[in-house]
Amino acid sequence: MTVIESTPVRTPGSDICSTAPPAHPRPDGQDRYTISEVSAWTGLTAYTLRWYERIGLMPHVDRSHTGQRRFTNRDLDWLAFVGKLRLTGMPVADMVRYAELVREGEHTFEERRELLERTRRDVRSRIAELQDTLAVLDYKIDFYSGARRAPERTT
After folding, report:
1. CA pair distance 30, 28, nearest whole angstrom
2. Closest CA relative to residue 6, chosen from 63, 96, 101, 76
3. Tens of pLDDT along 89-120?
4. Structural Rg of the chain based on CA atoms
5. Looking at residues 129-140, what average pLDDT do you find?
6. How many CB atoms lie within 10 A of CB 153?
7. Of the candidates 6, 33, 37, 98, which lies 20 to 30 Å from 27 by C-alpha distance?
């Protein structure tokens, strides 16, 4: 199996993830998606997509001549990244701040890194808590599995 990595074009203020973005439904240049198509692709509701744009979490989305939003592959990549940030438990205010920093340009790299490092520490702490919880569950499951195997006492 051959893996082909795509290398996004770097523009001032752009934020590149370390992994290749997922395959897009359409090639660049033909990537004009309606809000319903983006909703189907991302699993986010149209209301959430509009809210992301309104609060500044989503960069400016181009519009058609009739005013309909037209998302691009780059927008899909951004939404995938926002989805990862959501999974970390990052507060929306921090996500919006991160988006603002991206729009401000490369001089904000240090602040972006610090924000992501803080989030990584929080995620690692939650992972440790979950591992402890998993150990307790495993213990209890093993206990109950052994209890079923033991013969029942009649006395």
Report:
1. 5
2. 76
3. 999 999 999 999 999 999 999 999 999 999 99
4. 22
5. 96
6. 5
7. 98
Q: How many CB atoms lie within 10 A of CB 17?
A: 12
Per the rule left: phi > 0, alpha: psi between -120 and 50, beta: everything else, 123 is alpha
Sign for the pseudo-dihedral over CA of 83, 27, 109, 59: negative
In which residue are the tokens 């603002």 written?
Answer: 100
Q: What percent of the chain has pLDDT over 90?
A: 72
Mean pLDDT for the stretch of residues 65-94: 95
As beta bridge partners, residue 62 has: 70
Strands annotated E in the chain:
62-63, 69-70
State the residue for tokens 């195997």: 149
For residue 66, CA distances in Å to 30, 47, 69, 70, 74 come to 18, 19, 9, 11, 22
How far apart (Å, rounded) are the C-alpha atoms in residues 24 and 10?
18
pTM for the whole structure:
0.74
